[in-house]
Amino acid sequence: METMQLTHSTTTFFLNLINLLGIFAFAISGAMRGVRSQMDIFGIVVLGVVTAVSGGILRDLLIGAIPPEAIANWHIMALAVLAGVGVFFFHHLFDHLRHPVLLFDAAGLGVFAATGAQKALTYGLSPVMAAVLGMISGIGGGMVRDILTAEIPVVLRAEIYASAALLGAAVTLVGDYAHLPAIESTLAGASLSFILRMMALYRHWSLPLSLIHI
Question: Whole-prediction pTM value?
Answer without folding.
Answer: 0.89
